[in-house]
Amino acid sequence: MICKYLEAAIREALLNAIAHKDYGSGNPIQIKVSDQGIIFWNAGQLPEAWTIDNLLKEHPSIPFNPDIATAFFRAGLIEAWGRGTLKILRECQNAGLPTPIFAYDPSGFRIEFKKKSEKRSEKRSEKRSEKILELMKANRLITIAELAESLAIATRNIEKHIAKLKEDQRIERVGADKGGYWEVLDTTEK
């Protein structure tokens, strides 16, 4: 089964494919969904002298179809030109997904979202849970927002880790959401 990709990253990849496509080529935008991941391909071109590296850092936007990009911007579908690839990278990182692969050759542009490795994601999840426990031990009053900021991940991911830690009886919430505190339970006896 394909892992759940963030809607924002997939949406951004599709909007980029539409705004940067070479409509004179006659080739459709192609999307392949498989057990390995999701691939977007279009007959688009990078600006002259650009490489993939330009897309992986802050850059200006030079859309192949500026009228389409302007319409997307005015409709509120894109925040600002030149941030799409960075948004995709950030959304995947926040979701704990592998970094997407951007590729370009004379035939067109491709972005590939790979499936999350179960083994890798389990190890990452365990490390994050341990970091959450450490932060809770250091500050029993720490909030979910503060945990998210400290670990640079989304609050919903913190909530999932907390739910799992509660299920595994590693933590307990004492008192109300406001005014309460976290109790890290000793699991050596279990």
Give the helix tally.
Answer: 7
- CATH fold category name of the largest domain: Heat Shock Protein 90
Task: Kindly state the percentage of residues in helix.
Answer: 40-55%
Number of domains: 2
Question: Would you count the extended β strands for me?
Answer: 6
What is the top-level CATH class of the largest domain?
Alpha Beta
In angstroms, what is the radius of gyration?
21 Å
Give helix and strand order, one letter per element, not per position. Answer: HEEHHHEEHHHEE
Structural class: alpha+beta
Beta-strand level of the residues, as a percent range? 15-25%
Could you give the order of strands across the largest sheet? 1-2-4-3
**Average pLDDT taken over every residue:** 86
CATH architecture heading of the largest domain: 2-Layer Sandwich
Low-pLDDT parts are none
Question: Span from first to last CA?
Answer: 34 Å
Q: Indicate the overall shape.
A: elongated
Biggest sheet descriptor? 4 strands, antiparallel
Quick tags:
two-stranded antiparallel sheet; 16% strand; 190 residues; 42% helix; four-stranded antiparallel sheet; Arc Repressor Mutant, subunit A; single chain; 6 strands; Heat Shock Protein 90; alpha+beta
Describe, in plain words, how this protein is organized in 3D.
With 190 residues, the protein is an alpha+beta fold. The chain has two domains: 7-114, Heat Shock Protein 90; 118-184, Arc Repressor Mutant, subunit A (Orthogonal Bundle). Helix content is 42%, strand content 16%. It has helices at 7-20, 52-55, 66-74, 84-94, 118-138, 144-151, 155-167; strands spanning 30-34, 37-42, 101-105, 108-114, 171-174, 181-184. The strands form two sheets. A four-stranded antiparallel β-sheet has the order 1-2-4-3, covered by helices on one side. A hairpin with a 2-residue loop joins β3 (101-105) and β4. α5 (118-138) packs across α7 (155-167) and α6 (144-151) packs across α7 (155-167). It is elongated. The model has no long low-confidence stretch (mean pLDDT 86).
